[in-house]
């Protein structure tokens, strides 16, 4: 599945002028509020008719203003999960779920009702009405409703934004399963670095209606300048760790990357599981010699690849750790005192407690290396 | 309770009123929904004019409405003669004319109630249905219509009650013929015009009140049933 978008659309003073191509399993449209993310998914979904441009999905033209083509939304077969669920209040959960199926040609119904219900864990809700569901349950039903219509593409507009942390944590694993086990590509709108870093395979960064950058998630999120000011603390690297075993007595989990061994707070998964972990740049310390007598549990031998700094007090140091890329955020003063330069071998030190659940995602398939 | 026994003519008036009001309500319903939907959702040139025309029977003297109906649907009037010759439908001095007069008088009330409920429908639900593959007709039938059902019931009951009480336009258009066009209000009016008619007038008045109360009660129960489905159990 390749999605190709190239549109211009005025809304009042706001100009959306965006173009990108993506073939990812889960492409995130990422940017601050007001950057045009929602307008862009609404154009893809057919809720907005762009003034100018072209949208194609797998070669099928959805919009082409030059050729006066506009496929209405009910003929696009694009599922849409809205931020506010939008379940039909007069129908039961079962009827909500089955709604889209009715309109899908029989030959194109690939989604199995009970499979989707199992995937999302909503079997016990089927006879209830939307008004009696919690926010997290509503959102799961909304995802199920979009899936059961057997769409060719699913759009999700900040599906977790209206939920508290506990509910987010409840839904995340379902989104990961959906990304890894279904064959439906997903376009996911979010302004949260943690969400996008955990879920997305590809990221399109939007700002003021323009595409600032697009590419693989790991590449985008290790680039400081691409993140909005208030999210720069979230810059980090995504690496894959294979679970080796558990240290039950300490409540720790031992994992292995290409660059060495890691100890993280307990992760509930069996040995052999590949996890995608985000290591924030601000959590990575650098040392010239292997530190001894230090509380931090993770020390890796790394090589400096690149140092980027501007007029501010900080610098972002890119590191190579056995083929994985790590980033460290240090002061320019430290760069100078330590004599850091590309090619220099140093040690990266990461405290185990800096990892929280939001930064650790499951991965059920082999990523391309990032 | 001897005094509550109705004469055959009085029974006729009761039956006729219910028949006329039911027909007025049922036949105007599809038009009412269509007009309410158009006024609530569409922007077009002349919308204010249409809106004014719909509301006209509400603000004009009923006698004027009745007279205009007579001028339009009378035996020799253009529309009336056409309908009579082509479809065999005759309105003047028939119960059908009474139903037409009641329907026209009740129409603005019905449209207002339905229009208000259409305006409160969350249109985002309709676009959600659109993304699931429903075209506009399906969206209307499966989403909009069920959501505005309470408004439709309210509009129907209002129209029915208004039709039960309609007097001026009816008597002007189709006169006051016992057994054919003499509805409850006309019958009550007739009683008040003859000496010693008080007992009859009171009997019919009580029946009129009872029918209106029953209709209101039925609509309350229905509306509560429907809206309870939207609430948490």
Automatic annotation (TrEMBL), chain A:
UniProt entry keywords in alphabetical sequence: ATP-binding, Cell inner membrane, Cell membrane, Membrane, Molybdenum, Nucleotide-binding, Translocase, Transport
PROSITE patterns for the chain: ABC_TRANSPORTER_1, ABC_TRANSPORTER_2, MOP
Residue ranges annotated for the Mop domain, each copy included: 293-359
SUPFAM superfamilies in the record: MOP-like, P-loop containing nucleoside triphosphate hydrolases
Gene Ontology cellular component list: membrane
Gene Ontology molecular-function annotations: ABC-type transporter activity; ATP binding; ATP hydrolysis activity; molybdate ion transmembrane transporter activity
Domain ABC transporter: 2-233
SMART domains noted in UniProt: AAA
InterPro entries to which the protein is assigned, alphabetical: AAA+_ATPase, ABC_transporter-like_ATP-bd, ABC_transporter-like_CS, Mo/tungstate-bd_C_term_dom, ModC_ABC_ATP-bd, Molybdenum_import_ModC, Mop_domain, P-loop_NTPase
Family: Belongs to the ABC transporter superfamily.
Record-given protein name: Molybdenum ABC transporter ATP-binding protein
Gene: modC
Automatic annotation (TrEMBL), chain B:
Claim: Membrane is one of the keywords in the record: yes
Domain ABC transmembrane type-1: 14-215
Example of a GO MF term: molybdate ion transmembrane transporter activity
Location relative to the cell: Cell inner membrane; Cell membrane
UniProt keyword terms in alphabetical order: Cell inner membrane, Cell membrane, Membrane, Molybdenum, Transmembrane, Transmembrane helix, Transport
Gene Ontology CC terms: plasma membrane
CDD domains: TM_PBP2
Domain of life: Bacteria
Membrane topology field: Multi-pass membrane protein
Pfam families: BPD_transp_1 (PF00528)
Keyword Cell membrane included in the entry's annotation: yes
InterPro entries in UniProt: MetI-like (IPR000515), MetI-like_sf (IPR035906), ModB_ABC (IPR011867)
Bilayer-spanning residue ranges: 20-40, 52-73, 93-116, 137-161, 201-223
Family stated for the protein in its record: Belongs to the binding-protein-dependent transport system permease family. CysTW subfamily.
Protein role: Part of the binding-protein-dependent transport system for molybdenum; probably responsible for the translocation of the substrate across the membrane.
NCBIfam families: modB_ABC, PRK09421.1
Protein name as it appears in the record: Molybdenum transport system permease
Organism: Pseudaminobacter soli (ex Zhang et al. 2022)
């Amino acid at each position: 599945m390749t999605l190709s978008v190239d549109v211009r659309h005025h809304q009042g003073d706001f100009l959306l002028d965006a173009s990108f191509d993506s073939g990812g399993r889960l492409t995130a449209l990422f940017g601050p509020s007001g950057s045009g993310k929602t307008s862009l998914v609404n154009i893809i979904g057919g809720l907005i008719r762009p003034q100018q441009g072209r949208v194609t999905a797998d070669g099928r033209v959805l919009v082409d203003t030059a050729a006066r083509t506009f496929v209405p939304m009910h003929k696009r077969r694009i599922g849409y999960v809205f931020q506010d669920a939008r379940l039909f209040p007069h129908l039961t959960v079962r009827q909500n779920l089955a709604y889209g199926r009715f309109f899908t040609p029989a030959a194109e119904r690939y989604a199995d009702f009970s499979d989707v219900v199992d995937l999302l864990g909503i079997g016990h809700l089927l006879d209830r009405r939307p008004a009696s569901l919690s926010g997290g349950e509503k959102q799961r039903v909304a995802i199920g409703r979009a899936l059961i219509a057997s769409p060719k593409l699913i759009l999700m507009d900040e599906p977790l934004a209206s939920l508290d942390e506990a509910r987010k944590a409840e839904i995340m694993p379902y989104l990961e399963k959906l990304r890894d086990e279904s064959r439906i590509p997903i376009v996911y709108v979010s302004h949260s670095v943690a969400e996008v870093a955990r879920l997305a395979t590809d990221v399109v960064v939007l700002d003021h209606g323009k595409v600032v950058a697009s590419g693989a998630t790991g590449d985008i999120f290790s680039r400081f300048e691409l993140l909005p000011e208030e999210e720069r603390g979230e810059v980090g690297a995504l690496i894959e760790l294979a679970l080796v075993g558990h240290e039950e007595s300490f409540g720790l989990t031992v994992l292995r990357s290409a660059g060495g061994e890691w100890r993280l707070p307990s992760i509930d998964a069996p040995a052999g599981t590949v996890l995608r972990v985000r290591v924030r740049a601000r959590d990575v310390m650098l040392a010239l010699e292997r530190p001894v007598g230090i509380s931090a549990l993770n020390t890796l031998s790394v090589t400096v690849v690149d140092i980027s700094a501007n007029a501010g007090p900080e610098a972002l140091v890119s590191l190579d750790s056995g083929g994985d890329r790590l980033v460290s955020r240090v002061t320019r003063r430290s760069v100078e005192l330590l004599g850091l330069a590309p090619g220099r071998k140093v040690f990266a030190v990461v405290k185990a407690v800096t990892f929280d659940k939001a930064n650790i995602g499951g991965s059920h398939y082999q990523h391309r290396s990032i | 309770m001897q005094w509550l026994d109705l004469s055959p003519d009085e029974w006729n008036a009761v039956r006729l009123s219910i028949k006329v009001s039911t027909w007025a309500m049922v036949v105007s319903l599809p038009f009412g929904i269509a007009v309410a939907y158009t006024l609530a959702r569409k922007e077009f040139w002349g919308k204010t004019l249409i809106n004014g025309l719909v509301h006209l029977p509400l603000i004009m003297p009923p006698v004027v409405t009745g007279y205009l109906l007579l001028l339009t649907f009378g035996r020799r009037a253009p529309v009336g003669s056409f309908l009579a010759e082509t479809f065999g439908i005759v309105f003047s001095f028939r119960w059908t004319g009474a139903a037409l007069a009641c329907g026209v008088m009740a129409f603005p009330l019905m449209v207002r109630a339905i229009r208000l409920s259409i305006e409160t429908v969350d249109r985002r639900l309709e676009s959600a249905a659109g993304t699931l593959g429903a075209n506009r007709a399906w969206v209307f039938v499966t989403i909009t219509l069920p959501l505005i059902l309470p408004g439709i019931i309210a509009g129907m009951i209002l129209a029915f009650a208004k039709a039960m009480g309609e007097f001026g336009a009816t008597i002007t258009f189709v006169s006051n013929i016992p057994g054919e066009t003499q509805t409850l209000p006309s019958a009550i009016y007739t009683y008040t015009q003859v000496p010693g008619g008080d007992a009859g007038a009171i009997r019919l008045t009580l029946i009129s009140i009872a029918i209106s109360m029953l209709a209101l009660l039925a609509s309350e129960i229905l509306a509560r049933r429907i809206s309870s489905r939207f609430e948490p159990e």
